[in-house]
Amino acid sequence: MKKIVLIWAAVLMSSVVLAQTDDSSAIRKKVGIVLSGGGAKGMAHIGVLKVLEQAGIPVDIITGTSMGSIIGGLYAIGYNANALDSMVRVQDWSYVITDKEDLRRQSLSDREKQNTYAFTTGLTIGRKDMNAGGLIKGKNLAELFQQLCTGYTDSLDFTHDLRIPFACVATDIIDNSEVDFHSGRLPQAMRASMAIPAAFSPVRISDMVLVDGGLKNNYPADIAREMGADIIIGVTVQGAPKAAEDIGNTMSILSQIIDVNCKNKYDENLAITDLHLQVDTKGYGSASFSQAAIDTLIRRGEELAMRHWDEIIALKQRIGIDEDFHPNVFHPLRPQVMTEKQRISGFTFENMTPQAERFLRQKFHLNRIDSIDASLEQELTTSMRVDLFYQTAECRLVPERLRAGDETSGMGSGVRVILSAGNRKSAQLHAGFRYDTEEYAAVQLGVDIPLKSSVPVNTDITLRLGKRLMAKGELTVHPRSFTRPTISYAFHRNDVDIYMDGERSYNILYNQFQGNLIPINFDLRHFNLQFGLRWDYMHYRNKLGSETSRQVTLKNEHFFSYRGQMKYNSEDNWFFPTHGARFNAEYAYVTNNFAKLNVRDDNGTVIGKKTGMSEVSADWRMSFPLGSRLTLQPMLYGRLLLGTNIPPVLGNAIGGEWFGHYIEQQMPFAGIGNIEYVAHQFVAAQLQVQQHIATSSYVLLRVAGAQQSDHLRELADHRPLLGVQAAYYYHTMFGPMGASLGYSNRTQKPYFYLNLGFEF
Fold first, then answer.
1. CB within 8 A of 57, min separation 6: which ones?
2. Which region holds residue 138: left if phi is over 0, alpha if psi is between -120 and 50, else beta?
3. H runs (alpha helix) in 320-424
4. Which of 148, 222, 615, 657 has the least C-beta neighbours within 10 A?
5. pLDDT by residue (tens digit) across 527-536?
6. How crowded is residue 604: how many other Cβ atoms within 10 Å of its Cβ?
């Protein structure tokens, strides 16, 4: 998953893993480590394990519940404490604990959609969705466990097939019974153990519906004892009991219900624990997955264990080993499974149509590749969900010997790649919400409906509700190449205020009907290229304004335009990039009859036809990191309208925060918030300084300058436009939330703007 390759670099540099086969194991007592549940608070387990390794405590058995099952399960297959520390720090938990797709390697259009909607969910009609039952289906968590457990993803005996005997706990809500995993698929067992009810969907195995094991046994010391542990060292991360005054909101009520139910067996299991370490997690909750929280929780676990150092060392005598004893050690046997490509022995496709199998084979050239790494695993599963519309997708690597004769050629063993799919989606639902000081509240809803065909075809329906209404239908073909031919039809009801030098001049209310035929649509990871034909019909309903605005005459009219557009985006973040580049360029030739454009007199009457209008527009932004949190972002942009006959409705407009927000030809300009029409030739430059001041907080400072003219040769003859702007934004799962304050020499007054949510 994301940044997973870095984990194994840390594994190689980290201290070696404790061996469980030291010479004294036959005569000493067996040591069991028990790790409790607690969500993100369970990160503290890693700090305790660091100290136990430092003290030379052998680990013969490990058991856990929920987060304790994750830390314990990974420890049991060879991750030492330093490797676990590195692993949890490099994960993007804001992605891992959601069902978002990792679209960094997918098409620009898919990435744009992900950064438009706050909520996305799949819907299966006619077949029960066996992965439903929670706000989060846990697709990304399951995929992370699958990758971290590479080599241990098949059905195994956790007592004999893992490096350290391991067990974890889940709860079967069918009969409210405790389910102890001593065998099975390790990633699935860990996922079941941490399925917090209502938050994460349960895991279904046979007739069982499994949720978080903490409901029955949150601290499974009894299981460690049953597995043969003579000495038990236990770690818990639960906070102090809540008083009545501490329970005042929905989350605190839910937390209290879980805490109370997690008391099952707790006192009895504490009674059989030889050393109990209770980590202080005050100030943090089950969802505290920020980098600062993880750092603090690991440190608190380590500090607590160090305060018990003398007890830990004294425990060695009870175990039956000397104070200076350290177990034999071995270097990790499997760090290469993620850092290096693994040789493929073959592919197996489960629950997949022949058309879907053929699509994957051709898109990723599976018949020609002979190795796989974490990056390709991620791309395969994402493509199965995004391109082929499967609700869930899984890529498992199962070690096996290559075909007979390959060993003599030095090929050795390899892995069988098993691509397993869930139900096909009947629809994908999207929802986005925003509020700003210009248009107030707005809602955008979308539904993607895949059609049942040999070549993937997707129907996309979008509805926007607010001051600006929009309804759009789009049909996109997903052939096995990266070309996505598209046809669409849209209706826009635009209600736009037009300003002159900072003062409102008039309001225009009009309907726009638009059809697009795009036969050439290359949609790649960072690059999109389109060529097509567009039809627009403008129906003007009302125009209210001052006397000076009445000289602008608007008549209903239609346009046919030939268009070519290129987009490139390699930025690492859609809204607050720290490196990469963004480049957009478009050329359009606009006509009324596929060749020429109407000429109108002052009354709007057509008096002739002339050559059509050409439109050339582009914007280019680069991001240069000047440190770990400071980024410099220069940008050049502009729009040139060429021809002797330019319809007023297609004229250049500036203002606001984004390109094309209120009207299609709108360009942003620092210090100007409302739409202002400018001359036909407009070029601008902007310099932005972005300071990352906290986990998700950003301060932006912008300065912009521009030149405009009705003729290119006179572009430098006019007074330049200048503007400055300062903004603060907090990046949330619902989109950027913040405010900006700006000033320009065109408006000559300050402008304040508040934005809450994604831009659409």
1. 31, 233, 312, 315, 316, 319
2. left
3. 336-339, 354-363, 374-386
4. 222
5. 889 999 999 9
6. 11
Instruction: Enumerate residue ranges in the chain where pLDDT < 50.
Output: 1-21, 23, 330-338, 404-412, 548-550
Rounded Cα–Cα distance for residues 337 and 147 (Å): 9
At residue 6, the pLDDT reads 40
Could you give the CA distance from residue 407 to residue 117 in angstroms, rounded to a whole number? 51
Token pair for residue 96? 């891992």
The CA-atom distances, in angstroms, between 591 and each of 8, 219, 429, 515, 564 are 58, 73, 37, 15, 15
List the alpha helices (DSSP H) in 157-308. Answer: 186-193, 214-217, 221-226, 250-261, 266-271, 291-307
Residue 305's nearest CA partner among 48, 89, 132 is 48
Six-digit token string for 686: 């902007």
Collect all residues with Cβ–Cβ distance below 8 Å to 573 and sequence separation of at least 6: none
What backbone torsions phi and psi does residue 756 show, to the nearest 5 degrees? -130, 105
According to the 3-state scheme, what is the secondary structure of 88-99?
Answer: HHHCCHHHHCCC
Enumerate residues 6+ apart whose C-beta is below 8 A from 26: none
* φ/ψ of residue 28, rounded to 5: -90, 170
Spatial separation of the C-alpha atoms in residues 226 and 335, rounded to whole Å: 32
Interstrand relation of 486-500 and 166-172 (parallel, antiparallel or unpaired): unpaired
Task: Provide long-range contacts, Cβ within 8 A and 24+ apart, for 308-313.
Answer: 308/275, 308/277, 309/51, 309/55, 311/275, 312/51, 312/52, 312/55, 312/57, 312/275, 313/55
For the residues of 613-635, what is the DSSP string, one character each? EEEEEEEEEEEEESSSSEEEEEE
pLDDT tens digit sequence for 208-225 = 999 999 889 999 999 999
The closest of 364, 199, 379 to 286, measured between CA atoms, is: 199
Exposure b/e, 359-392, CB count within 10 A at least 16 = b = bbeebbebeeeeebebebbbbbbbbbbbbbbbbb
Give the pair of three-digit tokens for residue 520. 């050439």
- The distance from CA 373 to its chain's CA centroid, rounded to whole angstroms, is 20
Enter the DSSP assignment of 426. S
In SS3 terms, 545-595 reads as ECCHHHHCCCCCEEEEEEEEEEEEECCCCCCCCCCEEEEEEEEEEEECCCC
